[in-house]
Amino acid sequence: MAAAHEPEVIRDKAAMRAWTRRRRAEGKAVALVPTMGYLHNGHLSLVSAAAAASAGPVAVVVSIYVNPGQFAPTEDLTTYPSDLAGDLRKLAAVFCPPDLYVRAGDGRPDAGSSGGTVSCLEQAGGGYGHETWIRVEQLEKGLCGSSRPVFFRGVATVVAKLFNIVDPDIAVLGKKDYQQWRVICRMVRDLDFAIEIIGSEIVREADCLAMSSRNVHLSREEREKDNNLKALHRTRSARKNGNPCCKCRYDDFVHSMALSISRSLVNARTAALNGNNHSQQIQDQIVQTLTEAGDSSIKQRNFRNPFDVNADCELESLVPLERVDRPAVICVATWFGKVRLIENTEIQAPP
Amino acid sequence: MAAAHEPEVIRDKAAMRAWTRRRRAEGKAVALVPTMGYLHNGHLSLVSAAAAASAGPVAVVVSIYVNPGQFAPTEDLTTYPSDLAGDLRKLAAVFCPPDLYVRAGDGRPDAGSSGGTVSCLEQAGGGYGHETWIRVEQLEKGLCGSSRPVFFRGVATVVAKLFNIVDPDIAVLGKKDYQQWRVICRMVRDLDFAIEIIGSEIVREADCLAMSSRNVHLSREEREKDNNLKALHRTRSARKNGNPCCKCRYDDFVHSMALSISRSLVNARTAALNGNNHSQQIQDQIVQTLTEAGDSSIKQRNFRNPFDVNADCELESLVPLERVDRPAVICVATWFGKVRLIENTEIQAPP
Q1: Residue finishing a domain among B177, B200, B223
Q2: Which of A70, B166, B168, B217 gives a 20 to 30 Å CA spacing to B289?
């Protein structure tokens, strides 16, 4: 979905608010697609969903902002992939704000931090910096929240900021980041935002790998830097072929490991729909599929938290279930070297 | 400030949003005065400030909602004073919403709580109830926050909900509740609400007591139920007169104690402006004034936390200061029997 002309690039809050007022005065609904940029076809499917979200005319704006509020100081804020020029070519209207967080030193005589993460800003002195956070207290804790304690706090907060700046009627989020989607839905309900949230389905590559900005790190170049993956590849090659110089191609090896996530979810879903609905059994089956793909030596090779499988969670609250006997979602997170991939599958109507 | 005609009473969210759209279409700015009802002249001064907040026409709406999200289960939610009929006579447009919190059992087959506080709802099971809270992480901790840990979380959250429902251009809050005012200012800045917050000055009774809904509990009838106050009165009478049947009137006694707060603040402010700006000295002087008014035997008589004096805090961050050498606020909270009274004084331009 390429823009036919130069995109409209909005760079500050006041201009963004004025843009929305103009579009609304033209009788259009305003739809926001919040992103961190480096857009792929998954993002563009959100833009299409936004444009089609109302029977009447819709003005769609995509925000591009790598949110320092959702990264812990140890995480990859500075290496998050970026391609603003490429992104702009794909869009019609873009909100590219400057830093959205007030830093302790901003406009104040006392020294303060600037740039970098803001996750722990409330611990810094001064008392002038950003310190307001939105907590969705149960939903933020499970699944990815257990390993990334400030993540959903940062996501909810920046999305609320974007909602207050853009003032949209509609917002579209991808259901690939399922917990994030549920956190935002709950925040909108609990804080009475007058915004319709649309969850858009997962978009996949031709080979079924779910699209993600982090897939770029699965490239040959990136992977070859990864000693864990190399070691694992050598181990598997040695076992299969009796010598360390294997016949399977390195690219194929990594890609098949990544693909095993979606394969395991398809199998789990089929099993649940056929009445094999014990969560523990479903989980064991997924782990087995992933283990076979990744070789049973993964744990010995120091892969971090190789399989974070949650079979199954209630669809809306994400509370763990013993059986898939009501609408549920199965979530999987896996580290491939330094890349964390997540996927999920909904089971809307279990037998 | 009595309304000349029947007030417009708005009872649900959709009607409230429609009201704001109509007023805005008429070219008016919309100003919100959030209250918990039981209106006194202090509240009505906020309504006047709201009406005068813009050069153009302003439509003012007062919300009346005793927020269950800011009371701890041990606090006085059910006994908070109320007089809706009396309130409505004083106003032109009122938003009186039903319960604004989704309870775990609402519309769900599983049982859940309904009514009562929601401060600790996230600890209950279910996962369907309200669980989104706004934390202003530093400002919420000090002063009143240290004795009421869920209070400012609940205030910030309900004000954000009201902002999202009413969608005002302006909101007016009283500076008597100084920390609350600063919490809301910070939330608005940090979450990018497009709302101008006006802090309205303290309004006093003819005798200088700051107006508060809780003053009603200082009535003779309420006070006579209070054994702590009676005992203190007897002690002081006995000391002064040599016998337990004192000459000072009970009403005057309690009132003079309450008034000692404002007297102590006037004295502290004068001292600071005269260059006696050591916070510890200012604090000691306030405590001395209060102690003289309340008799030095207060602590022995089991008054809870009799003097919660914070001299002095930086004006915006409420960070404690060693000296009043920059804009500051002095805050005092005192228990009189079962009533907690708070007051403050700003020092905008210390010498």
Answers
A1: B200
A2: B217
